[in-house]
Amino acid sequence: MEPSESAAERSSTELTPGSVAEVTERLLLWGRRDGAGLARVEYSSEFDRQKVVQRVQTELKQAGIAWTELELPTRRPAEEIVQFLRERLAEVSGGMVSVTGFATAFEPGIPLADALRVVNFNREALVALPLRQLWWMTPVLLQTSLHAMPDLHGWFRPQLKLNPAMSAKVISDSGVIPLGAGELRSVNFEDARQRSQKLLVEFEAARQAGAADQDLLMTYLLPALESLAEVGAQQELRDLTSQFEGFLGSLRLGKTPAMAAALDRLAGLYFDQGRYSEAEPMYLKALEIRKAEPGDPSELGGANRHSSTASSLNNLAQLYQSQGRYGEAEPLLVEALEIRKSELGERHPDTAKSLNNLAGLYYETERYSQALTAIEQALQIYIPALGVDHPTTQTANGWLQAIQQKLQG
């Protein structure tokens, strides 16, 4: 029997950029090289970060490379944080060091940018050690650090972003006709509850340490909620969202793509619980943020051409469709289709996804001829792009048959 292929030996070009698998492989390739260096990973989910850590740590250990965890203390002057880093790093003999806790490390009352400038001033002492240092940064901290310590950022190679793993429904934005959402991970209920509780403990610690609202939501609370949603623990999920309604209602929201993605995820959790009135304003806010992102304005009401805008349009349309608000859903789906055609091309699978969504609305409103045209166009894209045996293609074929039966009956 041939030895199994390690993560570092698989081609990263086959992996989804920003996924747990892709970030893991990039870090392993970097960590196995000789010499010292710094790497930076932006992350929005502590749950996903832990998955990367576990996989990297396991494979490095098998390769005989040491792994060290270094968590910064909380609410300290910047000079103390630098001293802590220098002393602890000096104690490590080699291998890779994973450094966490930057978001809550610095004392409150002092602008974060000023604290990070102190770190930047000491950059040469921090990077001189014969180690591979892996620094984990939340989105808010990263954005501030880019301006406050630009010299230090020049030392980070690679610079990675770990995108949160969302539920199949959110990823597919598939409307009524499913697109082969894929298997959800089989996770024990009790394990999911324990992971959720651990994230909530970390959430409270980070809140006490003065972490930014966006980091609290994206790094701890959302992953805790999604951990429960992943295994269908709806009662626990409802209890937890109710417990944090005050916090969610008082969020100071930044107008960033990361926040738009977080709002979409949170709205999706409310949507799955049937809490449509709470999901709608979050979907609307996400759409507003994405339409305001830099980009070439289109003739479609000023919306830019980003495919993320199309995803927001589809999410909102799906909500309206579930409520029977078909007149409001249809123009959103049409706009999403036009954006994807323009941004991604006529033959892209996401363009087919929009056609599939429109077919679902036409089917629900008994406009079977229009549904047939849309699903046939979708299949003309799916078959050459994905193959006839792909679950998405097979699902679309099933709906084609259902629509044909309606026309014949």
Structure description:
The protein has 409 residues and is of the alpha/beta class. The chain has helices at 20-31, 46-62, 78-90, 102-105, 112-121, 123-127, 139-148, 150-153, 168-172, 189-208, 213-230, 234-243, 245-249, 257-272, 276-291, 307-322, 326-344, 349-364, 368-386, 391-408, and strands spanning 37-43, 67-71, 96-100, 132-137, 156-162. The chain has two domains: 7-162, 3-Layer(aba) Sandwich (Rossmann fold); 168-408, Alpha Horseshoe (Serine Threonine Protein Phosphatase 5, Tetratricopeptide repeat). It contains 20 helices and five strands. A five-stranded parallel β-sheet has the order 2-3-4-1-5.
Keywords, separated by commas or semicolons:
Rossmann fold, 409 residues, disordered N terminus, 5 strands, Serine Threonine Protein Phosphatase 5, Tetratricopeptide repeat, alpha/beta, elongated
C-alpha Rg (nearest Å): 23 Å
**Main sheet properties:** 5 strands, parallel
In percent, how much strand structure appears in the residues? 5-15%
Q: Give the N-terminus to C-terminus distance in angstroms.
A: 56 Å
Largest sheet, order of strands side by side?
Answer: 2-3-4-1-5
**Number of DSSP helical runs:** 20
Superfamily at the CATH H level of the largest domain?
Answer: Tetratricopeptide repeat domain
3D shape: elongated
CATH architecture of the largest domain: Alpha Horseshoe
Helix-strand category: alpha/beta
Model regions low in confidence, pLDDT < 50 over at least 5 residues: 1-13, 167-172, 174-187, 296-304
Which CATH top level class of the largest domain fits? Answer: Mainly Alpha
- CATH overall fold name of the largest domain: Serine Threonine Protein Phosphatase 5, Tetratricopeptide repeat
Query: Quick check: average pLDDT?
Result: 82
From N to C, what is the helix and strand string? HEHEHEHHHEHHEHHHHHHHHHHHH
Total count of strands: 5
